[in-house]
Amino acid sequence: MLDLLSNTSSNGTVTMSRKRTRSRSEEIVSTTNLPQPVTGCCLPAPFSEDPEPSALRNACDYSRRITLDEARAGLAPRPVRVYADGAFDLFHQGHARVLQQAKNAFPNIYLIVGVCSDKMINKHKGRTVLKEEERYNAVQHCRYVDEVLRDAPWEYSDEFLRRHKIDFVAHDDIPYSCGDTEDIYAELKRRGMFLPTQRTEGVSTSDIVARIVRDYDVYVRRNLARGYSAKDLNVSFLKEKKFKLQNKMHELKNKMHELKDKGRRVMDSIGERKDDMIAKWEEKSREFIENFLLLFGRERLSNIWNESKGKLMV
C-alpha cells in the first residue's frame, strides 16, 4: 500500500512522497498529519528522474543480487526491482493486466515501467495513435506502477540494467526478434533475470485500431454530428456531405420509429380504456338487474300484472 508523506524543505516548500507499507490489507495508516484534502494514494507514479525514485535507486544495494527463488519465497533483503516496458498505445485492460502480473509476481516489488518514445516506436513498429506524453501520462495513472521511465530503450544493455538496478525484466515468453537477434530476452532468460507474464487473448492496440477502421463510417458520422469538421477528420467535401445526409436520414428514421411507437402506445391506451368501459358497463348492468329483482320479485310482478289486467278490462 502506498501512503503519502509530506516533507518540508529548508525553504519551507512542502513536497509529497510515496511510502510503501506492509500490505494493502494489514493496517490503516493514520492520515491526520497529511495536508487536506489529500488522502490515500492519489498521486500518479513519478518519473525516473524525479527526486524520490532517484533517492530509492541510490540507496539500493545492487551488489547483492536477488535470485528468482529468493524473490518468490519472499526472502529478498530489499524490494525487488522489476522492469516492464512497451509502447502502451491506447492503454487498455491487456496492458493493465500485464502490469498487475508483474506487480504481484513476488511479495515485495518495486515496479518500474518503461515507455518507448514516438521516435523509437515509429522506427520499429510504426505510427502510434497517442503521442508519447499521452502514453507516459496513461501509464503514470496505473495503480500497479511505482516509477515511469520515459524514452525507454528497445534493447537491454548491462549498463542500462545496472543504472536502473533492475533485478528482473517482465514480459510475455514469446520470442521477440530485433534485427539479427531472434529473441532480445534470450540473455536475460539465460541469466535467470526474466519474469514471464501472460498476454490477454483478443485484446491489443491493433485489435482496437482494427475495430475503428472496420466501423470507419459510423465513427466519422458520429464525430461530424458532434461538431468536428471535415478537416479535423481528414475527409473530402463530398464525403462530408454524404455522411451528414446519412446522419439526417438516421435521425428521420429514429423519429419515424418514435412516432410509430407513440401511435402504438396511444392505440393500446384506447384499447385499454374501451375494455375498461365494457367491464364497467357489465358490472353496472348486473347491479341494475340484481336491484330490480330485489324490488320486483316473481310474486310482485304477478300481482302487478294481475292488477294492471283488471284495470284494463274495466
From TrEMBL:
Biased composition (Polar residues): 1-16
Keyword Lipid biosynthesis on entry: yes
SUPFAM superfamilies for the chain: Nucleotidylyl transferase (SSF52374)
Cytidyltransferase-like domain segment(s): 83-211
Alphabetically ordered keywords of this record: Coiled coil, Lipid biosynthesis, Lipid metabolism, Nucleotidyltransferase, Phospholipid biosynthesis, Phospholipid metabolism, Transferase
Statement: the UniProt record of this protein carries the keyword Nucleotidyltransferase: yes
InterPro entries, per database record: CCT, Cyt_trans-like, Pcy1-like, Rossmann-like_a/b/a_fold
UniProt superkingdom: Eukaryota
This protein's name: choline-phosphate cytidylyltransferase
UniProt-listed Pfam families: CTP_transf_like
Stretches for region Disordered: 1-30
Biological or metabolic pathway of the protein: Lipid metabolism; Phospholipid metabolism; phosphatidylcholine biosynthesis; phosphatidylcholine from phosphocholine: step 1/2
Coiled-coil portions: 235-262
This enzyme's EC code(s): 2.7.7.15
Signal sequence coordinates: none
Single Gene Ontology MF annotation: choline-phosphate cytidylyltransferase activity
Family according to the record: Belongs to the cytidylyltransferase family.
